[in-house]
Amino acid sequence: MTEHVQPAPGPRDQRPLLIGAMTLLALVMVFLAPMALDYYTVNILIRACLYAVAALTVDMLWGYTGILTFAQGTFFGIGAYAVGLVFTHYGFSPTTAVLAFLGALVAAALVAAIVGWFAFWHGASPLYAGVVTLVLPIIVVQLLYSGGTLTGSSSGLVGFEAFDLEIETWFYIAGTLAVLTTATLTIVVRSDVGRVLVAIRENETRCSYLGINAPRIKIVLFTAMAMVAAMAGYVFTCFGMVVAPEMTGLVFGTELIIYTALGGRGTLVGPLLGTIGIDGISSYLSGELPYLWKLIVGTVFVAVIILLPRGLIPTLGSLLGGFRRRETARVSGLRLRRVEPKGFASQSGAMALAISGLDRRYGSLKVLSGVELTVGSGELLSVVGPNGAGKTTLMRCISDGHERTAGHVAINGNGIGRLSPHRIVELGLGRSFQNTSLFETLTVADCLRLARTRWERPHLFTRSREICLPEAALRVVEATGLDAMLDHETRNLSHGMKRALELSMVIALEPSVLLLDEPTAGLTKPERMMVGSILVDLCRSESVSVVIIEHDLDFVREISSRVVVLHQGAVLIDGTVDEVVSSELVHAVYAGKGAAGQDERAPA
Predict the structure, then answer these.
(1) Which residues form the ABC transporter domain (predicted)?
(2) Helix locations, 308-402, DSSP H
(3) How far apart are CA 75 and CA 54, in angstroms?
(4) Which pick of 185, 211, 282, 309 has the fewest CB atoms within 10 Å?
């Protein structure tokens, strides 16, 4: 087992030490602040710190994972009502305090899991998730209104006994909770798991085809953030000893989104400081300008969204020259390592890919009709045909169980049914796309690590420096020069480099069936020949079955063991390279395309 180390690695990553130092400094400031602030300001800051914790959960969901949610205020209110209900109806004691705390976490988790199951199913759009979380606070408020004496209806619950602590102590609790929540989430977003969250935000479809169960990750994150928000609501009500339906409502949930956007989405520090600053200023303005302060805050919000879309904190940091919003900050000392394959060829002995009676219709338009196709272990099949023949649609039907209208598809003897792409990847499938599908803000190293998620569980609190790849994927990386660009963001790569990166990612999955849609587009001739030799070697040494759509007919002749010609959604001919080349029927089909089909002319 050999290693390939990135040339001239930089110094060790200092971010963990910096996070620790900043956290310690923030905690010192929390414990010194009550000595310098008046009673009213301390009171306001307690509330602002707890609101900030809820805003941090919005940033984790919206800023880092791309889930716009209006429900975090509701989960804050669930934590608050857990305190009010238990202390009002069962009295206050250490036992009931613990029960209320556990009840807050469990109730928030259950509600979040149910809502997440409805909001994040495979294929659900971000808009759909936003609508579901928009409805939740409306439903909860109506339930509270109809609760009568149990929930206090529209008046809420007041006058119950709770913890008897000095206001300075409450400030220490709220401030410490805000600081530690920020520090913990900062570590998470800079870890391997944080990279997965950003990948879901950038390109959830590609994540699914890397075997990443994005809906499950969203539900788990949504549930975890609901529990954090409920914890903040618990502390808030223990301090204020008042709970009202408005604490679970849509207005509060929207305010948390505003705080996050104004502070700086996807930064954590921005929403923290933005919430504390805006809520603190609003508290003073509401006394001085009782009828205008909300208008002022709303106007500022609109102005910031238009003029400073990144938010106040990132923009201010950029002006000072010391801040750059980077979810995927570069890590020095990156190392490529060859590993023994864990996947590739199926051991079941079944046909690698079997398709029968495959149809795909879009309304009255029939794109595929009665496709019959088998691919044996270690076979390299090229699929060719005129534009519009249904080649890419065939790829979609093989890799996503929801795509086909009728027919049967089996991978290694396992029918795909209506399975989602990430489940089909587990059966041994890997796929590249006709248009390169990557993660624009992630680095080359991050993309390669993501491709190994199926085999290497991401770490929650650390970021790996080592990239373990099978020999074939490593050959693509080294031959195309990607090994010298590991810390470059993919959006800065050339088109050819992006194609090479996507190919190496798909091979890194170690699939037994490999679907490649024009994998050499944009590559030079030597690079195309290199890719061809790697694919042939995969078929021979690992018994991988490759199905490739390709317009470079010289390339097809060089590597293919079999060729299938699609025409008008059906298999026109299925045979060896020589049989297809010599077929008069194939020549007639291509000749019928005329000048528009020059790139897909019949093999000569």
Answers:
(1) 353-593
(2) 312-320, 391-399
(3) 9
(4) 309
- 345 and 238 together in one domain: no
| Domain containing residue 492: CATH number | 3.40.50.300
| pTM exceeds cut of 0.85 | yes
How many domains does the chain divide into? 2
- ∠ CA 469-473-477 to the nearest 5 degrees? 100
Pairing of β 562-567 and β 570-575: antiparallel
> Which residues touch 217 (CB under 8 Å, ≥6 apart)?
196, 197, 200
Of 124, 126, 125, nearest in space to 66 by CA: 126
Range of the domain at 115: 21-250
- What six digits make up the tokens of 570? 């059906």
Query: Do residues 424 and 400 make contact, with C-beta atoms less than 8 angstroms apart?
Result: yes
Instruction: Calculate ∠ Cα 168-240-93, nearest 5°.
Output: 90
Distance of alpha carbon 390 from alpha carbon 379, whole angstroms? 21
Q: What is the DSSP string of 155-196?
A: G-EES-------HHHHHHHHHHHHHHHHHHHHHHHTSHHHHH
Boundary (domain end) residue, out of 250, 278, 295: 250
Last residue of one domain, picked from the residues 250, 268, 290: 250
